[in-house]
Specification:
- With 296 residues, this protein is an alpha/beta fold.
- The protein has two domains: 75 residues, no CATH class; 204 residues, Dihydrofolate Reductase, subunit A.
- Strand 5, helix 4 and strand 6 form a beta-alpha-beta unit.
- Helix 1 packs parallel to helix 2.
- The longest helix is centred in the first third of the chain and has 15 residues.
- It binds NADP nicotinamide-adenine-dinucleotide phosphate.
- The site of NADP nicotinamide-adenine-dinucleotide phosphate has 24 residues, from strand 3, strand 4, strand 5, helix 4 and strand 9.
- NADP nicotinamide-adenine-dinucleotide phosphate binds next to strand 3, strand 4, strand 5, helix 4 and strand 9.
Length: 296
């Protein structure tokens, strides 16, 4: 009688993902395949699972995470963003309540992305309204560095990310205001970026922010929200990939998700290469924004 091959599931895959990331950070050896972890690696294609040896859930999860796992150790900054939105395009109610737009499967996915990235970035609005912890408490894996973009220094020092010491936190402002911020929350929690607000009255220059984070060894970056911040990264050409998770809920007159400069003709609207993943009752669109920007 033919014995069916052993199938490995997501419980076997996740520790492998963490090992890959430890290697990328220079903290462990390159993972090697064995009978318990059948996979392959080559410099041009990155990691690949031996699909006959893993169950369908593991194969699907790997396909979703592979772009993050394939980051080479010494490359420039690479940015993945996320938004969880309603069918009518809102990420929170008008008053700011977003607990929870998406179901538990998407929340676990966000914690996985935090664990695979060097830093998690949020805008001041999200930090002020949600007071998030930005940790990996739903999954195994290290907490990322937590980055708050707050050029106007509006955020209170009592926020959990600035006071709980669960992971390093960096409040980002223009270098000209770094001393003021340091008096408020401590110099070790301030990243003053020269030229961040060189366009007076305009948005932060995210390219200079990415360079400053890269200089600190933070290269694989997860922009978790909110809508204004994710939209600014896309509009400035600073986002490589976007996970847009759509929940079967209607919020109505809520806070908008993406808000991008428009085109007058449909033929000029970007259609990034995409894949779709089912996440419980929600649907996650994985958009390759870099491919959408590159000439075909
Ligand atoms: N569903 C999701 O995936 C998701 C993810 C993250 C956040 N959220 C929700 O999104 C909302 C926040 O997103 P957002 O697009 O409005 O902002 P955001 O992208 O988090 O932050 C950017 C803007 O926040 C502004 N801001 C707004 N209210 C603020 C406040 N009370 N304190 C300090 N700065 C504030 C800043 O204004 P200035 O330009 O004037 O400095 C800045 O332009 C929250 O309701 C949060 O719950 C949802």
């Amino acid at each position: 009688m033919r014995v069916p091959p052993a199938l490995h599931g997501t419980d076997a895959l996740w520790p492998l993902c963490l090992e890959i990331v430890r290697h990328r950070r220079g903290l462990g050896p390159q993972p090697a395949p064995d009978a318990k972890r059948p996979f392959a690696w080559d410099p041009s294609r990155g990691f690949a699972l031996r699909e006959d040896a893993w169950d369908a859930q593991a194969v699907e999860l790997f396909a979703l995470l592979k772009p993050v796992l394939d980051r080479p150790p010494e490359s420039s900054a690479w940015v993945i963003g996320q938004l969880g939105q309603s069918l009518d395009g809102c990420i929170a109610t008008r008053g700011g309540d977003s607990n929870f737009v998406n179901g538990p499967e998407v929340l676990v996915h966000l914690h996985r992305l935090r664990a695979l990235c060097d830093a998690v970035i949020v805008g001041a609005g999200t930090a002020a309204i949600d007071d998030p912890q930005l940790t990996t408490r739903r999954v195994a894996g290290e907490n990322p560095v937590r980055v708050l973009i707050d050029p106007s220094l509006q955020l209170p020092a009592t926020l959990r990310v600035l006071s709980d010491r669960q992971a390093p936190t960096l409040l980002v402002c223009d270098a000209t205001r770094a001393d003021e911020a340091a008096r408020h929350i401590g110099a070790e929690q301030v990243l003053g970026v020269p030229g961040l607000m060189k366009n007076a009255g305009g948005p932060p220059d995210l390219r200079v922010l990415l360079r400053a984070l890269q200089q600190r060894g933070l290269r694989v970056l997860f922009v978790e929200g909110g809508g204004i911040t994710v939209s600014r990264f896309i509009a400035q050409g600073c986002m490589d990939r976007l996970h847009l998770s759509i929940a079967p809920v209607l919020i109505g007159n809520g806070r908008p998700g993406l808000s991008l400069p428009g085109s007058t003709a449909m033929r000029d609207c970007p259609r990034p290469p995409s894949s779709v993943f089912r996440m419980g009752a929600d649907v996650l669109w994985d958009l390759d924004l870099r491919a959408a920007n590159s000439p075909s």
